């Protein structure tokens, strides 16, 4: 890591977006929690820190017990700092200004006036009105800066409440915005961030994928030397991209282990075999453990218990296989940056999302995580650079415990067979039918779609006969970050076609329902 921007996270839901936007501009960015130690901050400075951004927060800068810590002596560093939302208020309070509650809170779309001639906003505007430059922005705040700290100028204010929407002190290179430039609703958001990182911090556009590939291959080679590496391949984007990258660097020193838990989608195993063993000629050990998993899950209905069994069983099997390979020193994982940020910044756990979690503690191997600084969209760009096809790269996410959490209650082989077929029909139809608005297939317009097996029977009629069979629920959602999600409004005629196909082709299902719940309060998966 050389020249870079540091985002200090105060717990806002959109902190990661700040880092992603800046990387999209072409500047490398890292996120650290607000309790970053002096030592870590110093490491960043030594490695070429060019600017700092203080994120938004759920906290309050003017209520003593809700205040969050600022990194030590941050305003004395002489490095440019941009405070966003809470970050602006924390900066104001720290430097002798004042923050108070707003009478009318501002949430969502807002118009602010750009006072003009500031370093941060220049003469940016989305439109002008009465000779004033107006910016369309996204706000989310109940507090506001009421008195500017000494040496600061007001650079923007809200058209509706007149509250201060931006301030700067160019002598001290301190800048702040009450609105969120990182969300796409702020029309000129990326331009504002670009002005900060390029014009003010003086960063160069050095962050791009081809360079990253070359650099990581060199890094992996020098880290691993002649050692052997193992990797748990799941067929998902992250582990696949990690495997290809590492394979490019160290060839046959890498062995992948693919544990078939029987909880994968129809044809998934064959796709993996074709892609990695046949096309890419990687060393892969396939372990058929489907029976073991089903046996272990017999009689278990509690979702968390099922997740734990599947996770632990995977670890046991993986470990046994790994022990058979001599002289392994490294365990490679497809950990990506959001995993690191979320686990280190203490977010609350609703479901235990474990894929290979737990492995590093159990195995005394060194960890190789070549994607640990990348966001998902960057992993996809990297995958493309490495020659992975779009079908693989743009696949909807699939949970670690697989279909185990898409069969409600006890997992049985009989249920798995029905679910795999139904799910395959659903996905096939989403791929084969075009969304005329976007001219893409429905699958590409949806963030995630899948079928869920409900182990309840209902009465139906087929021909002249009464049926008493199981139910399939279909779930399709649209989301940016999977933290919140909206159910996807699929056309009724397409739903009708899918339902008919499932009922006609999957013997044992006589009813199909469509899930129309958002997250929150529902979650994406049913378990
Ligand atoms: P939830 O159900 O928590 O899902 O709203 C959000 C996203 O996470 C995926 N998911 C998992 N992914 N291991 C994973 O890698 C897991 O254990 C797991 N559980 C849920 C889910 O499919 C959705 O994309």
Automatic annotation (TrEMBL):
Biochemical pathway: Purine metabolism; GMP biosynthesis; GMP from XMP (L-Gln route): step 1/1
Record keywords, A-Z: ATP-binding, Glutamine amidotransferase, GMP biosynthesis, Ligase, Nucleotide-binding, Purine biosynthesis
Domain GMPS ATP-PPase: 207-395
GO cellular component: cytosol
Tagged with keyword Ligase: yes
Pfam families: GATase, GMP_synt_C, NAD_synthase
The reaction(s) this protein catalyses: XMP + L-glutamine + ATP + H2O = GMP + L-glutamate + AMP + diphosphate + 2 H(+)
Sequence positions that bind ATP: 234-240
Protein EC: 6.3.5.2
GO molecular function, one term: ATP binding
Residues annotated as catalytic: 85 (nucleophile), 180, 182
Assembly with partners or alone: Homodimer.
Function: Catalyzes the synthesis of GMP from XMP.
PANTHER family named among the record's database cross-references: GMP SYNTHASE [GLUTAMINE-HYDROLYZING], GMP SYNTHASE-RELATED
Protein name per Swiss-Prot or TrEMBL: GMP synthase [glutamine-hydrolyzing]
Organism name: Candidatus Kinetoplastidibacterium galati TCC219
Gene (UniProt): guaA
